[in-house]
């Protein structure tokens, strides 16, 4: 399904109609997305079109309030809106945790009819969750092209150090002013680029699971996601220069990818092992009381390592595998759980074990998966032909100035190795790392990637 990007005269993005005959339920989102220069100046008119009411709670952090929040607040007040401000002040990094959620909730009262999130990832995710839980609509004012989550229905939050994904709402109005967004720090733009590139691995892992586990699969969503990736790579020079056209192209790619989350109601088309690795690094950094890398930058770096793992995976001589020996060498449930607690810590480990029913497989199921892969390996390889080589992707990264190695985002070799071996355990999402583990070759693949061979 080829998607053409079109706009109405008032800069509203005309979303494509999803025509698909797969077995997955599809939803038709009701959302107004405006992209263009000077969008902020018309924010009041755009918001009034939806008739949310006149009493708003505006959520921002000090930076996003300075670049856009103050202006939005004043424009709404000038047009007769009653605006209450929740500015999330922090001595260090703002996290989407229970403290921030509580702060927003304490600013709510019965008069508040809708919420306005001014920011990017953290502010938007906090707002979408509160809006969903309290039954209120919300407006999103984007301040950076740093993520695909502006139109998501999932909020990645942190609860007692554990990264959790909670059902949430999407904004009914999304305002993307290119003049504001193109002035965001370039690191945030690179984070958005990394988030888009990660879709390569998300799609590849989904293909694996469709064939091996008969997981529900939407080919139209896959087409949309791969078009988003291609759009970003084709615009790499304009993105690097942070021109309006480049930022608009990246935003369109992020929204196109995020649209698939709205359509099927979960993040399967856009997030897999590369996101698991990014979440693992974030949780471990927080345990160490260190500042984690930005989510998008971590996803981009993790995508490179996952792509290398795919390449090493296909260099394996699968005909030499001894299935009986693999099954005899299976670790026990207690061994698996002990290792998870050791690598995630005594607080997070039990939660990982509780939430991932596929953490330990019975022998019969592991054997079925191995045999299914061995029968279908040629078809799988053919269907993953869209993946670029690591050399091709690394060249794109270097060209645009994106981080390539884990060390560039503050991830040491211990955290890198642990992510390669244990990020697969973070949640139930089948990936090439999961398959390699079931085939008994994951430690060898991880060692090869670590050695750069």
UniProtKB/TrEMBL annotation:
One of its GO terms (molecular function) is metal ion binding. GO terms for biological process: phospholipid biosynthetic process. CDD domains: G1PDH. The keyword Phosphoprotein does not apply. Keywords: Cytoplasm, Lipid biosynthesis, Lipid metabolism, Metal-binding, NAD, NADP, Oxidoreductase, Phospholipid biosynthesis, Phospholipid metabolism. InterPro entries: G1PDH, Glycerol_DH. This is Glycerol-1-phosphate dehydrogenase [NAD(P)+].
């Amino acid at each position: 399904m080829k998607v053409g990007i079109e706009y109405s005269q008032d800069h509203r993005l005309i979303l494509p109609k999803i025509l698909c005959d797969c077995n997955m339920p599809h939803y038709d989102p009701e959302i107004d997305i405006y992209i263009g220069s000077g969008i902020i100046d018309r924010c009041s008119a755009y918001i009034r079109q939806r008739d949310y009411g006149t009493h708003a709670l505006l959520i921002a952090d000090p930076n996003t309030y300075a670049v856009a929040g103050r202006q939005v607040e004043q424009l709404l007040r000038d047009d007769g809106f009653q605006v209450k401000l929740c500015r999330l002040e922090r001595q260090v990094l703002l996290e989407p945790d229970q403290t921030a959620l509580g702060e927003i909730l304490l600013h709510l009262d019965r008069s508040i009819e809708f919420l306005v999130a001014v920011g990017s990832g953290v502010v938007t995710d906090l707002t979408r969750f509160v809006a969903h839980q309290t039954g209120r609509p919300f407006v999103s004012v984007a301040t950076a092209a740093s993520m695909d989550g502006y139109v998501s229905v999932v909020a990645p939050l942190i609860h007692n150090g554990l990264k959790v994904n909670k059902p949430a709402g999407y904004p009914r109005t999304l305002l993307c002013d290119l003049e504001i967004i193109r002035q965001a720090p370039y690191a945030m733009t690179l984070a958005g680029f990394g988030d888009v590139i990660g879709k390569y691995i998300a799609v590849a892992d989904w293909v694996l699971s469709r064939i091996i586990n008969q997981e529900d699969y939407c080919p139209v969503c896959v087409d949309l996601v791969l078009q988003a990736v291609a759009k970003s790579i084709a615009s790499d020079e304009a993105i690097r220069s942070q021109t309006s056209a480049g930022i608009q192209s990246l935003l369109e790619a992020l929204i196109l990818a995020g649209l698939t989350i709205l359509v099927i109601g979960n993040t399967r088309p856009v997030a897999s092992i590369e996101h698991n690795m990014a979440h693992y690094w974030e949780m471990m950094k927080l345990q160490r009381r260190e500042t984690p890398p930005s989510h998008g930058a971590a996803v981009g770096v993790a995508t490179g390592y996952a792509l290398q793992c795919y390449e090493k995976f296909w260099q394996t001589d699968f005909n030499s595998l001894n299935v009986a020996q693999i099954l005899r060498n299976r670790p026990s449930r207690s061994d698996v759980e002990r290792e998870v607690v050791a690598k995630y810590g005594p607080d997070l480990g039990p939660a990982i074990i509780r939430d991932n029913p596929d953490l330990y497989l019975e022998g019969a199921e592991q054997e079925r998966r191995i045999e299914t892969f061995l029968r279908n390996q040629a078809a799988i390889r053919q269907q993953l032909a869209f993946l670029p080589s690591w050399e091709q992707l690394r060249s794109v990264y270097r060209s645009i100035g994106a981080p390539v190695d884990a060390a560039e985002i503050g991830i040491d070799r211990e955290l890198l190795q642990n992510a390669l071996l244990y990020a697969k355990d973070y949640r139930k999402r089948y990936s090439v790392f999961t398959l390699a583990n079931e085939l008994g070759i994951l430690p060898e693949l991880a060692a090869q990637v670590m050695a750069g061979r």
